Amino acid sequence: MKAVILAAGKGTRMGDLTQALPKPMLRVQGKPILEHILEGLIAAGLREFRVITGWRAEVIEEHFRDGAPWGVSITYARQEVQNGTGKAAEPARPFVGSAPFLLTYGDILVPRETYARMVERFSAGDFAGLLTVTAGEDVTKGGINFFDDAFCLTHLVEKPSPAQLDQLRAQGWLKAGAPVWYNAGIYIFRPLVFDFIARLEKSPRGEYELTDAITAMVAAGHRLVGLPIAGRWVDVRDPAVLAALERTAPSA
Questions:
Q1: What is the DSSP secondary-structure string of 183-208?
Q2: DSSP per residue over 133-174, as a string?
Q3: Which CA distances in Å does 118 have to 80, 112, 178, 211?
Q4: N or C: which terminus of the chain has fewer CB atoms within 10 Å of its end residue's CB?
Q5: On the CB side of 249, how many CA atoms lie within 13 Å of its CA?
Q6: Are 182 and 228 in contact (CB under 8 A)?
Q7: Is 240 part of a structural domain of the chain?
Q8: Which of 214, 221, 223 is nearest to 194 (CA)?
Q9: Is 241 helix (H, G, I), strand (E, B) or coil?
Q10: Can you give the pLDDT at residue 83?
C-alpha cells in the first residue's frame, strides 16, 4: 500500500510560526510533525510516499528529499491552489495507480500502531474506503459521522452548526449517551475515490470538500468502514496545541 500525505497548507492559525515554514515542518520534541507521521507509516510497513506540497514546498522537499535516509521512496506533487480538502489529494492520482492508498493530513498525530490497525481493518473486508474517527471532540470544527451495526458509514455532516446538531437530535441521529464520532482525518481509499473527487462542486463555504466525495460514495452504494483511534489523537491546529505537545511525548 502507498501513502499520500497532504502538506500544502500554510497553517494561518499558527501566525508568525509559519511565515518561513509550512505547518507540517513545525517541530514537536525536536522533530518535524511530518517526520513523526512518516516514521509511524514506515513502522506499519509502508514504503512508497507522495507528499503534496504547496506553501514553502522547498522546506519539505529539501528535508526529506527522496526518502533514502529512511529507507523509503518519497516523491512530491504541488497543489498550486489551496481550495479545500476535496481537491488536495488529486495531484497524487497518477502516483496511486490501481491500488488502495492511505491518505493523511500532515498535521495529525496519532499513536504509531494506528496505521497498522487501519491496514488490517481495511484488508478484512470488501471496502471502498476506511475513515478514522475519534470520540468526544467539538464536531462543529470538523465532520460528524454515523455508522451502522457493522461500523460502516451511513451518514456524515461536515462542521454542523448548533442548529444542525439540534436537528440531528430531533431526527434521532444523535442519541444521549452514545458516542459522537468526529472525523480524525486519516483514511484508506480505493482509487475510485478520485472519480467522485472529479465531480465535486464547491460547498456553501466556497471550497471543495472531501466529505462531499465520501457522502457521494456512500450514496452510490460503496461501503466505507470506520475505525476509532485508540489513544491520543492530536490535530496540531494552533500554537496552544503545539506548545502542549512540547510538554509531552508525541503520539506518532
A1: EEEEEEE-TTHHHHHHT----TTSS-
A2: EEESS-GGGSEEEEE-TT-BEEEEEES--HHHHHHHHHTTSS
A3: 30, 11, 23, 19
A4: N
A5: 6
A6: no
A7: yes
A8: 214
A9: helix
A10: 83
What single DSSP character describes residue 71? T
- The answer as to whether 94 is a domain residue is yes
Per the structure, how many domains does the chain have?
A: 1
Domain for residue 252, yes or no?
no
Does residue 228 form part of some domain? yes
How many whole angstroms separate alpha carbon 213 and alpha carbon 200?
Answer: 7
- Least Cα distance to 218 among 241, 192, 243 occurs for 192
What region, left, alpha or beta, does residue 27 occupy, with left being phi > 0 and alpha being psi -120 to 50 degrees? beta
Contacts 24+ apart (CB under 8 A), 247-252: 249/29, 250/28, 250/29, 250/31, 250/36, 250/109, 251/36, 251/109, 251/110, 251/111, 251/112, 252/36, 252/37, 252/39, 252/40, 252/109, 252/110, 252/111, 252/112, 252/114
pTM of the model: 0.93
Give the domain CATH number at 139.
3.90.550.10
Tell me what percent of the residues of the chain surpass a pLDDT of 90.
Answer: 69
Helix and strand tally (H, E) in the chain?
Answer: 9, 13
Is the Cβ–Cβ distance between 187 and 103 less than 8 Å? yes
* Segments forming the whole domain that contains residue 106: 2-246
Looking at the DSSP bridge assignments, the partners of residue 212 are none
pLDDT digits (tens, 9 = 90+) for 33-59: 999 999 999 999 999 999 999 999 999
The pLDDT tens digits for 75-128 are 999 988 888 889 999 999 999 999 999 999 999 999 999 999 999 999 999 999
